Each structure stands twice: as C-alpha cells, then as structure tokens.
Amino acid sequence: MGYPLSKIAAVVGGELFGDPEYMVSSLGSLEHANADQLSFLSNPKLSSVLASSEAGAVLLRNESDVDLVRNAIVVRNPYLAFARASELFVVKEQGWEASIHPSAIIHDSVVLGKGVVVAPNVTISAHAKIGDGCIIGAGSFIGENVVLGQQTRLAANVTLYDRVRIGSRCIFHSGVVIGADGFGFAPNAGEWVKIHQLGSVQIGNNVEIGANTTIDCGAIHDTLIGNGVKIDNLVQIAHNVVIGDNSAIAGCVGIAGSSVVGKNCTIAGGAGLAGHITLADNVHITAMSLVTRSLDTPGSYSSGTAIDSTPKWRKSAARLRRIESMAAHISKLEKQVNTLLTKG
Amino acid sequence: MGYPLSKIAAVVGGELFGDPEYMVSSLGSLEHANADQLSFLSNPKLSSVLASSEAGAVLLRNESDVDLVRNAIVVRNPYLAFARASELFVVKEQGWEASIHPSAIIHDSVVLGKGVVVAPNVTISAHAKIGDGCIIGAGSFIGENVVLGQQTRLAANVTLYDRVRIGSRCIFHSGVVIGADGFGFAPNAGEWVKIHQLGSVQIGNNVEIGANTTIDCGAIHDTLIGNGVKIDNLVQIAHNVVIGDNSAIAGCVGIAGSSVVGKNCTIAGGAGLAGHITLADNVHITAMSLVTRSLDTPGSYSSGTAIDSTPKWRKSAARLRRIESMAAHISKLEKQVNTLLTKG
Amino acid sequence: MGYPLSKIAAVVGGELFGDPEYMVSSLGSLEHANADQLSFLSNPKLSSVLASSEAGAVLLRNESDVDLVRNAIVVRNPYLAFARASELFVVKEQGWEASIHPSAIIHDSVVLGKGVVVAPNVTISAHAKIGDGCIIGAGSFIGENVVLGQQTRLAANVTLYDRVRIGSRCIFHSGVVIGADGFGFAPNAGEWVKIHQLGSVQIGNNVEIGANTTIDCGAIHDTLIGNGVKIDNLVQIAHNVVIGDNSAIAGCVGIAGSSVVGKNCTIAGGAGLAGHITLADNVHITAMSLVTRSLDTPGSYSSGTAIDSTPKWRKSAARLRRIESMAAHISKLEKQVNTLLTKG
C-alpha cells in the first residue's frame, strides 16, 4: 500500500516540492518517521526539528522550510492536511464477508438500507430503520423503532435503546450505551419512587462517540446531541442535556441533567457540569473543573488546585481550611495598623 | 393511548378539579406541554408560571391555584404524583415475541421461573436461577450460580459474573458489570501478586443501576448493596463496599474498597470516597468532592474550589500554593504590630 | 474443599506452628474468620487483635505471636503469603463444557492454540491468533489480526479492535474496550475533521484490566502498556499513552493523549493526567489529583482541597476566590508596618 506524493498533494490541496512520484507507505511523527513515511510540522516556529527528521516527505506551512526536508507539501494548515491525508492510510480490514451475517437476529419488521453490513451476534429489534451503508458491529444491540441515518457505523458491542434516533456518518465506539433511563426518582418516606423516563435521544450527523460513553434518554422530552459533536470515552451525559453543534467533550466528563452546552464549546477531561445550567457558545472548560453555575460569556473557565508534592499540598490544604481565620487576622491587623497610623 | 383525568387522579390519590373525562395522552413540562398533556407544579411559590402554560391538566399542591389551569389534580406532593403517573405512560414495546429466544444459549441446569423473557444472543451459565417474570436483555451474560429474584430486568449487554445474587424488581442498564475481580494485589519485589477475589456481590430489592456502572466482587466476604439503592451511570464500586438502603449515587462516582455508605445518603456526580471509611446515615456529598475520612455526623460535605475564569483561577491557584508563606507573613506582622502597640 | 495447613505452609513458604493436618476450608478476615478459616495479620504492631479472632489459622510475621492463635504460619510477608494462598481457594466453575461453543462465530482464518476455550456468542474475526490456553468469555469480540499470548483470559463482553496485540497471562474484565479510535480531530472552520487513528495497542504480559476500562489505539504509533501493569475499572487511557512496567492505576483515572507513566508508579482513584506529560518511575499520585505538568522526581503528589462541611466549605471557597486580594492587603500592611517601625 502506498501513494505517490502527487496524489497526497492533490488530496490535501497543497503545493508539492520534490519528487511527485515519491512513494509514501504510511504516516509517521517527525521524530520517528522513516524515508517511506509522511510527517507534518504544525508549528512553523519549530522548523529546527526538521533537519533531524528522517521523514520521506513533510507537510509544511512555510515554503522557506522546504529545503530542510527530502520532499515537502506546503499547505496553509499542515495539521488539517495531516488529518485529510490520514484517511488515505486507514487499513482496510476485510470485515465479515456476508453483508448480513447469518448469526445476526434481525426482526422481520426491520428496514435495512442498501449495502448495510451486519456482523455476527447482532440483535436488531422490531421496526428499526437502518440507513444505506450503515455498519453494525458484532454483538451490538439495536432497540425497537431505532432510526439510523446513512453510513453510520457502530463498532462491536454498542447498545441503542428503543426509539433512539441517530443521524448520518456517525461513529459510535464499543460499549457505547444510548438511551438508558435517566436518573430520576421522587423521594417518598425515605424511599425513591421511579420517574419513568419517557423521552428518548436524538443525535445529529457526523457525531463520534467514544468507547463506553453513556447518553441517557430524556425524562419527558428528548436528550439532544447536535451535528458534528465529538465525545470521547467514558463520558456521562444525563437526561435532557442539550449539546450544541461541533462541541467537543473529552474523556471522563460528566454532564448532569437538563444542562445545555452551547456550540463550539470544548470540555476537557474529567470536568463536570452541574444540572440545569447553560454554557454559552465557545465556552471552554479545563480539565477536572466543576461548573456549578451558568457561564454566559465565551472564554476559558477552571476550578481546582495545582499539583504539588503531597507533604506540601497537605500543609496548604490544611491552611486553606482555615482561610477564614487568616482573613480575620488580616482584618484585625488592618484595624490595629490604622490606629497606629492615626496616632502616629 | 391516553387516560381520562379521573383515572390519573385515582392513581396518584388526588382531588380532581375540572372535567373527569378529560383525556390525557402524555406528559409534558409546564413550559412545553400542550392541551393533551399532563404537567406538574412542584413548588407552589412558582404558581405564576401556571397562567402561561398550555397544559391540559396540572398536578398541584395548592387548591387556590386550580383556577389558573384548565384542569387540575390537587395532591400533597405533586412531584411524587408525577412519578406515579409516569408509569402509566411508559411506551409498551412489543419485545421479542418468543419468551425465550431460540438464539439464547441457556445451560441445561439453569432454573427459569414463570414468564421469564430471554432476548436474542443471551448466555446463561450453569446452575443460574432466574426468578419469575425476569427479563434478560439481548447479549447479556449470566454466570454460573447467579440468582435473580422476581421481576428483575436486565437491559441489553449486561454482565453478571459467577455467584452474584440479586433481589427482586431491580433494573440493571446496559453495560453494567457486576462481580468482576476487586483490585487487590500484594507488592513483591517490584511486581504485583494477585490476591484472588473469592467473595461475590449481593444486591437487594428495588435496586436500579445505570449504564456501564461496575460493582466488584469482594476479596473474601461479599460486596453488599442494600434495598432501594439507586446508582447512576459509570459509577465504580470497589470490593467489599457496603451501600446502605435507599442511598442514591449519581454518575461518575468512585467508591474505593471496604468503604461503608450509610442509609439514605446521597453522593453527587463525580465524587470519590477513599477506601476503608464510613459515612453515617443521611450524609450528603456534593459533586466532585473527595472524601478521605469517615463522616460520623449527618449533613452535607464538600471539597474543591469554585469555578472561575481561567486567568483569574491561575492566579488564585498559584497564590494558594504559597498560602503557607502568606500565613507566615501574617504571623510576622502580628508580632511587629504587637511590639508597636506595646511601645505605643 | 479444603487444604491441610501443611499444604498451605508449603505454598506460601512459611514455618508452621500447630497442627499440620488442620483443615482450612476457606479464607476470612481476622474479624470474621471462623475455626475453618485462614486469616492473616499484615502489621505485627496490631497483634493485640489476634486474641479476639476465631480464625483456625493465621499467617503471621512474628514468631512471638504464635501463642495468640490456634495455628500459625510464620512468613516474612503475611500479606504476600495471603495473596499466594488465595489462589488455592478460587472456586472452580465448570465453564462451558465444549472447549469451543458451537454458537461462537470464528472466522476460518483464525489460528486457535491448544486448549483454547471459547464461550457462547463470541465473535473472532479474520486472521486473529489466540495462544494456547486462552479463555474467551461469552459475547466477547476479537477483531481482525488480533494476537493473544498464552493463558490470557477475557471475561464476558470484552471488545478488542483490529490489530490489538496482547501478551500472556493477562486478565481482561467485562466491558473492557481495547483499541477504539483515539480522540483526534483537526479544527477547520468551526467543525472537526477526523484524524484517522492508524496505530494500535500493544499490551505486555501479566496485565490485568478492570471492568469497562478503555484503552485507545495510537494515532500513528501504538499505545503501549508494559508488563505487569494493573489497571482498575472505568479507567480511560488515551491514544499513544505509554505505561511503564508494574505501574498500578486505580478506578476512574483518566490519562490524556501521549502522556508517559514510568515504571512502578501508582495512580490513585479518580486522578487525571494532562496530555503530553511524563511521570518518572516511582511517582505516586493521590486520589482525584490533576497532574498538569511532568513530574521528574519520584515521590507522592497531590492536588485538591480537603473535605469539609458544605457551609464551611462554601465560605472557604468564596474566600479562596479572593486570595489575591488577601495577598494585596498583606503587602499593604507590611509597607505600613515597616513605615511605623522605621519611624518608631
């Protein structure tokens, strides 16, 4: 497998410097790439590293750097070009030969589009509609009345509850669970009475959802995930959450019920959102921050404390518990000093 | 589908004001409900919103509010009444027609109760006992000697390890794993020697467990989950943890080994409990707090810092690392001021 | 089932005090063990508890304690001895009788070693190689070209993506997902362009991975998990992370892309590592700490604040947001006091 550099330049829309017939067999980082590999330099300020790279070709931003490498493709955005080139090098697995594996259990009422692939041990329940070109991974479960758009791909062991609706060109990784009951209970005499979760989940187009992530169904109305949203692994999205288009959510994030995330937000790993709050468009939350109030202004937000050696941290944490007392000492000092200054 | 208001009033035990024959087709929030829908007002202080709601009927606490809506049912606890009404409106899916799907692999020694439903691609291992009316979702795995009470429901792709015992009327969502090995290793010359986990997991009645939550088996004795416990998605409960009756644990919580949570506790999303600690009954932990010591007194507990803009947070976090120095400066000032005051 | 004490003494390599024929039927904690059970005392300073234990035999460190118990085995490291003894008492389940269950779907090109057990509803894809003595749990999925060493055990419902390579004597618990796409996207005009993840995952020997943990494939090169690494439940390990030999990672930890964890590190529950950082060997991170920078020196590191009652915490957290102002007050006071002292 491989491509001549001219083919890659055409795919990424860049200007080729060097040998158009140079064969690229795969991709590599600047540090580890060999003469068969294509690499990229995202930040032109770091061009000094080019000299020591063995890469056969490099995606560059600055034409002035082309002499530092064997072959180059100059593009406005090398990182984006690298993303586009990466698609060429996806290893084509053979998949399960039969488009519909005979071990899959598919209810008679299911509507399958053209070219749908269903791997072994899949279950597809009554009245589900699977769009053209969808791929359903081994062991996945699709509930009743689920709707999948076109070219959506479920990896192995994905679970979609009844009535979940998903757009086109989505990728759901293994262990994803969409549409489980939201966590809703009314307290009654020391026990919890279940609030049956009657809504479902609607997911837009071009959404990618990472392994073992869970998105609950709505209590009354639906949980909503916009177009182009990217969600990493082990993320919890509670009932009636709304995620705006093109927002990205990193691993281990939890978003509590009925909260709204705007468009083009980013939420870094391990962060948490309380319920019933709203983030404006273009809000960015740093790792492991807890957001307990709505954020109406675009920008970056954080909580937490900095990492420190445990003995030093222990002292700071103990002192922090007495910060009110520190403030009182300061107030008292200020009064005393003011008295002294007045006297003086 | 739908119910006359009189039927709903009977189910929730409330007093009907309006047309007993009024047909309710579904539930809706006050904000979005239409004339076919039933809504509720939990907090009577917010009764001003009733005037603008289109809801066909509303569950209310105060009889004085009935004139503000088309039809009303007055009950002592509208939120609880809404929970009870929600059960009426659960969409009845047809399920897999055969009570035991022929693709399910069920060991000859398994004891199945009356009316058990087993969906496709299920595996039930030797000597398991499945109580009357249980529903086993597609792709689920039940290990050897597992015992399920009556009317317990496993969604698709649930995993129960050998010897796990579960009560009646439980709901386990997809991706739940009960009884995997606890995380126990003895260090030996820079390597880890496995402590084989010989206990199992016992779970009471009326327990609901959210998607992709994990509860490990005990090292020697069993991990214990009380009656009426509600656990959200992506929660980790380690070996030999004990959760008291009717406690509720929100998403992304982690509870380390051998810790004990009392009855009627609540643990909010993303919180963590260290191992070998005990929480008294009625302890409440706020979101993303870390509990590192036993809490003997009922009440609410927290850790962490408030969300702030990242630049401001960065300054505070840097200053916090030097809080010991601040305290030293204050002490020094106090001595100096005392000297000045004494002199003065 | 049971073993005479002499057999256990031989397995753990200790000196027996008491009756060599004494039959031990199972293990128990000092607190709960009965006369049929073996227990252990890890910390000799706590030997006062021995008098009240009913245990039939106890693993001890100090020979001077043997008179406090019915029977004893004296060993240098009782906790390690207990780990070794625990293997004797693992309950042998019968497993699925056929070594390869007929419901498993195994591609013709798969190479199965000697004595491989494949449970029901498993899918094994083309060109996978399964080493001697491996056990593949029900409902598990093995992708194309996956390689498993010898005696590796997958519990039920494990997912291995294409090309993942795993060593010998590993244990992967249910819901584990290895090799899902890393979270890599290039921003372009407000949308995200997928960077296809072309690497895979390599895992060493003697690795144990807890339930519902996810390890993503590398973007270009492979994600690497060393020998003897132990990972608990619900852990997220992102693309191109490297975990050094014999490091242990507790539940709910998240490690962001391209970070490197040294050998013999421990990361406690709920902690997070930012991307592109490096932890030296023998670094220990306490629970729920966030590591945002490389740590070059062995030792223990922490972040976060101590648990407190919520009302007190609320005051401290509010004050902490104004810590910069406190520092300014202190500076002002110092200047004023210096003026007064100079004058004085």
Describe the protein in words:
- Three copies of one chain form a homotrimer.
- Chain A is α/β, with parallel strands linked by helices.
- Chain A has three domains: 3-89, Udp-n-acetylmuramoylalanyl-d-glutamate--2,6- Diaminopimelate Ligase, Chain: A, domain 1 (3-Layer(aba) Sandwich); 105-301, UDP N-Acetylglucosamine Acyltransferase, domain 1; 315-343.
- In chain A, the strands form six sheets. In chain A, strands 8-11-14-17-20-25-28-31-34-37 form a ten-stranded parallel beta sheet, with no helix packed on it.
- In chain A, strand 21 (185-188) and strand 22 (191-194) form a beta hairpin.
- Chain A starts with a strand and ends with a helix.
- The mean pLDDT of chain A is 96.
- At the B-C interface, strand 21, strand 22, strand 37, strand 38 and helix 3 of B face strand 4, helix 2, strand 39, helix 3 and helix 4 of C.
- Strand 39 (308-309) of chain A pairs antiparallel with strand 38 (299-302) of chain C, so a sheet runs across the interface.
- Chains A, B, C: It catalyses: a UDP-3-O-[(3R)-3-hydroxyacyl]-alpha-D-glucosamine + a (3R)-hydroxyacyl-[ACP] = a UDP-2-N,3-O-bis[(3R)-3-hydroxyacyl]-alpha-D-glucosamine + holo-[ACP] + H(+).
- Chains A, B, C: GO terms for molecular function: UDP-3-O-[(3R)-3-hydroxyacyl]-glucosamine N-acyltransferase activity.
- Chains A, B, C: Pathway: Bacterial outer membrane biogenesis; LPS lipid A biosynthesis.
- Chains A, B, C: Keywords: Acyltransferase, Lipid A biosynthesis, Lipid biosynthesis, Lipid metabolism, Repeat, Transferase.
